[in-house]
Design brief:
This protein is mainly α and 327 residues long. Helix 1 runs antiparallel to helix 2 and helix 2 crosses helix 3. The termini are far apart.
Length: 327
């Protein structure tokens, strides 16, 4: 077993520990524990990648050959673009780890959970890209979603609960991260939102309610909540990229005209045309900002196309092309 193999094995274990600590309800030290082990997992994985790419000496300080470089140095060497959302995410998670060695409050979880979830997904992607290791074979995909048990920050409550220095640090951190979450993509933060809407289809509901005329507490019924920047955030190219990534990850080979192919814009348009995705509000949002409309797609659209391909990867593109030609 090579040194790189040992590093990857340890990276897997550190990642599993991070997920298990965070999702275990009896552990109150979970944010600190998670930040430590997820950073450890990244460091081990990136050092294995550096050894493969740059040679074994690349993970050591030149003037201290017995000491390996820090995670911060690894991140700078592998992700050279300072503005890349993934790099900014890692830098903030490292900052959290360093903070947790001193003192953090439970409310930090509300501030950092979008970044932590993105950090988990990024690690899974890079393990596959750098080392061809599918972490979902070690932890089922549904378990890599972090268990969220939190409420929104209340400034008055924070100031009443902690002394001025602790309260100011927490509130300042929240105010500095919030715009970064808005400005960056899902490689930096996975936004966590709960949207509620009314439906008469009982089978679609996850919770039930009834209207009480004499109730003292009131609610406001919102017929529709839609922010296309959040619900339909993928353009066609991004959809194609996500689909190809998922197909490769699942080992699904797609054929077109009898030859192996990666999905392209033409193939994507076969799906949108045949299944009428552009007319389906759940799948597509149309921007009428000029004479030429622009389209953005939801995660649901990507999931739908992937499931359709999965059913018949060797024939579906040819079938759609033939069916559309007869319309």
């Amino acid at each position: 077993m090579t040194v790189q193999d040992r590093l990857i094995d340890k990276a897997k274990e550190a990642f599993v520990l991070a997920i298990e600590i965070y999702n275990k309800p009896s552990i109150r030290y979970r944010l600190e524990g998670f930040s430590f082990f997820i950073c450890n997992a990244w460091e081990l994985m990136l050092k294995a990648h550096m050894m493969n790419k740059f040679g074994e000496d690349s993970i050591y300080y030149h003037d201290k050959p017995n000491r390996t470089i820090t995670l911060e140095k690894c991140v700078q060497k592998i992700f050279t673009n300072e503005k890349a959302p993934l790099r900014k995410n890692l830098e903030k998670v490292i900052e959290l780890r360093n903070t947790s060695t001193h003192f953090i409050t439970e409310e930090y979880e509300a501030v950092y959970i979008p970044l932590l979830q993105a950090c988990v997904f990024n690690f899974v992607d890079k393990m596959m890209e750098f080392h061809n290791v599918d972490m979902t074979q070690i932890i089922p995909e549904n378990f890599i979603t972090l268990s969220v048990r939190l409420k929104a920050l209340d400034e008055t409550e924070i100031r009443g609960k902690y002394d001025q220095q602790v309260a100011e640090r927490l509130l300042t951190m929240n105010s500095s991260l919030s715009p970064m979450v808005e400005e960056n993509n899902s490689a930096f933060a996975i936004r966590i939102e709960h949207l509620h809407y009314a439906t008469k289809k009982r089978e679609e509901a996850t919770e039930f309610y009834h209207i009480e005329k004499e109730a003292k507490e009131g609610v406001r019924l919102i017929k529709e909540v839609k922010n296309p920047n959040e619900t339909h955030k993928y353009n066609a190219k991004a959809c194609i990229r996500e689909l190809n990534k998922r197909l490769e990850k699942n080992g699904i080979i797609v054929l077109f005209n009898g030859k192996e192919t990666k999905l392209n814009m033409y193939h994507f348009q076969l799906f949108t045309a045949y299944f009428g995705l552009k007319e389906n509000e759940k799948m597509c949002f149309t921007y009428q900002i000029s004479t030429q409309p622009q389209y953005s797609y939801s995660q649901q659209a990507i999931d739908f196309i992937f499931e359709e391909i999965k059913k018949a990867p060797t024939t579906i593109l040819d079938d759609l092309k033939e069916k559309l030609s007869k319309k």
